[in-house]
Amino acid sequence: MFMRRRPLLGAAMIGGTAYLGAKAGQRSAQNQMVEEQQQYETEARLRQLEANQARPPAAAPAAAGDDMTQKLMQLKSLADQGVLTPEEFSAAKAKVLAGG
């Protein structure tokens, strides 16, 4: 019995397999690039958030410090006038310094 060889069929199978392999490689490379881009963007956002958290608001401590200074000066004035006893002055001063 005589078998015919089919060279075109073999070539088509090999070529098709190579084509599909190349396409899969391209998709894999694209997926990897997308993942790297997403990771870079995520890290950039995290760095920005960390920078924002590390920087304390400038206005709040200054206002609180001025307010505390005013309260302490007022308490000292009251103590000097004799309105507050030294014990009352100490207690009020501790309360102001504690933030209350």
Polypeptide structure, described:
- The chain has 100 residues and is mostly helical.
- The protein folds into 2 domains: 7-55; 57-100.
- The protein contains 3 helices and no strands.
- Helix 2 (59-81) packs antiparallel against helix 3.
- The termini are far apart.
- Main sheet, how many strands, which sense, barrel? none
From the N-terminal CA to the C-terminal CA, the straight-line distance is 106 Å
Radius of gyration, taken over Cα atoms and rounded to an integer in Å: 39 Å
Strand content: under 5%
**Helix count?**
3
Instruction: List low-pLDDT spans.
Output: none
Number of domains: 2
* Number of E-state strands: 0
Provide mean pLDDT, rounded: 82
Helix content: over 70%
Structural class: mainly alpha
The topology string of helices and strands comes to: HHH
The gross shape turns out to be: rod-shaped
Helix-strand blueprint:
Layout lengths: L6 H48 L4 H23 L4 H12 L3
Please name the defining characteristics of this protein.
single chain; 83% helix; mainly alpha; 100 residues; rod-shaped; 3 helices
